[in-house]
């Protein structure tokens, strides 16, 4: 279906450069390639006219066109410009067309588009976490791709400089992650008024996209004359061109004034247009009667589009009089008819702006109040009249404060910036003290959440301190607020302040709130662990465990976290009873209702993470999925980032690198939206781990450098993890000495006192490889023996890592049979808990050892299993390591004389032998494809299979096999 664009418009005057850009964009789109075209320029310069020409051309070619415009006075309406462009279109889609998006995406979009409201989930309050907003952005991108499935799409957005923050963030996302389908995103904006983050995004837009920014230039004098249809020697031209400076809108407006000679002195005010143009626009308004101007003022208060009945109520006119006034405004081209005659809109936003500014401030105040009452009486969505209340309500208006607070909560997930504005107004309106004390606390808490979501973490922290000041000393809510506040302080890099805050509140807490006190003790333990004070973390965790002896859900959760913290921080404490206490959380979470989990969401997430620590990874991934779904449907705002990042780690343990990367990217996108540097650093660390497993060394180093924040040394839990991956990457890169230096900086010293016990096995395994690369076998063996033997009793995966480390040392000492056995056992242990990549590494070492023993068939089995594991998970470098080991094994195997190469070629299909022959002649994939009349991708697939079957890794290796086969035949 195609949204109709008006009929043909008169040809553009001049604009050769701009028209060339429009032609390029439309031509590429017609050929199936999307892109971006952004028109930048001053007010009235002709951006909208060019955008109209673009949409008209696209419409004439039969392309789908959807267009929207931002409004200056609706900047607090979330996704306003996208809703304007797409909502009517979506309303006309058939159910089958929506199904192509998928239920999850439709549910996300239902929070944005009124036409999809019936598809919203039952619980309509979503998390304000920016990660949820990011999922909406991805759903919008997917929507554009679906719309472009059958026809190329032009999404034209005018006046982007007036876009609301949610629209700006969505556009920023599309610039970094452009639609994959045949979509042209075209927008017009004033560069001086554009949001800074969008200006930066335009500079950093995806370079692989067909993307172009066109600076719309003023008209020349001759072009101005052609526009105004006057002769070049007309005496008015010089003055008009000088006054308009080649701006076509101003030139036309001034031309009308100059023709009528009706300048009105004394009406110039500050505005977005030059005084002469303000005079031109005001001259149109001052020609009108008082009643018509009052109707115009009411329309300006309502905003585009507006209806006669609403204009009548806001202007305090009867409907027939309002209709007559609108007819006059249409005749004077102040407003224009839209939507089949049922709605109206100003001909240009600047006309509305001048009309609005020219209303009396007292009248305008009352008009906004009448607009709010009229829309509320019609049961309009609160989002449509909240901004009217914001401009008209007075302090003490409890009802208005409640409406604004409700409106804020409804957009907290998608437009926290708007929510913050409405909550601030609501707090100003709310009466002081008395029965409203609890409401003020609730609003302040929501406002703190909104500020956190938009990246104003310091303001969020200050508001939570204000909430603490308002809460009674004996309120059990205090500990909950303190725990939230502690996480914020930690996110700001203020761990000491966070610890002091929790300790102080803990000392003041009564004996009755046992679970709250246990949570506070655990928060202190987490802070100490993150700061590298491992023994102190264990002390606080033990105290928390002693308080968590009950059997209800909260006790189970606290007990799980405390038990895991003890195992993580105290050598020799990884015992079956503690593991059992952690695992008791699994059935407790499974049995808990969504409501119960919601009440203790942050604690549930922490408990799920401890389940992952004790290697029940499948259970943790299952629970993370449930937690994420709940977080998107409710108000669990503070913990969703923990869910995302922990799920990235869990998927990494499983070797599900795509899922791990997706979660880490979600976290990074969310952190970038909120300018939360600490969360960015954690996400970069997770991305570094994924890159390392994939074998992209430079990318892993880049992410690690970003995670370290430019620091060479590692001083926190987050930076230590980045230090581990840096050392690993440098080792693979061939710089073992530098790798060792970086690793020692990360672990602090050889005692490893600052490294969590459960984190030591993978770190020590890297250290073993570093020492072996430096030919210090004794040092490597010493590190391998540092892995706590008691871990092996309860954590098979960690013990499998120990076997992997020892097997490599044994190989270096030429104790090959022991190495083979130990590596095989390590593979079994890692496989038993789903650590597939570590299983593959164990199998690779076992294969190498078996090859050294001359057990070639057994070696091939291990190599084959390792190769399959790495290939299925995208671990490219490890896959290459297996291929190299297979070649080395092949070189050691006895070969039959003659015919061996020929036998190898006979393993190929007829078409593969044909491709191999052509490759050996030096032809490229493209040339082979042309010769065989197939696509280059088909040839690429053949070449990949040929390489695998012949156990070669290059075209030169393939050529050697082909020539050897020829020699054998000859």
UniProtKB/TrEMBL annotation:
<dbReference type="Pfam" id="PF00196">
    <property type="entry name" value="GerE"/>
</dbReference>
<dbReference type="InterPro" id="IPR016032">
    <property type="entry name" value="Sig_transdc_resp-reg_C-effctor"/>
</dbReference>
<dbReference type="InterPro" id="IPR036388">
    <property type="entry name" value="WH-like_DNA-bd_sf"/>
</dbReference>
<protein>
    <submittedName>
        <fullName>AAA family ATPase</fullName>
    </submittedName>
</protein>
<feature type="domain" description="HTH luxR-type">
    <location>
        <begin position="901"/>
        <end position="966"/>
    </location>
</feature>
<dbReference type="InterPro" id="IPR011990">
    <property type="entry name" value="TPR-like_helical_dom_sf"/>
</dbReference>
<dbReference type="InterPro" id="IPR000792">
    <property type="entry name" value="Tscrpt_reg_LuxR_C"/>
</dbReference>
<dbReference type="InterPro" id="IPR041664">
    <property type="entry name" value="AAA_16"/>
</dbReference>
<dbReference type="InterPro" id="IPR027417">
    <property type="entry name" value="P-loop_NTPase"/>
</dbReference>
<keyword id="KW-0547">Nucleotide-binding</keyword>
<keyword id="KW-0067">ATP-binding</keyword>
<dbReference type="Pfam" id="PF13191">
    <property type="entry name" value="AAA_16"/>
</dbReference>
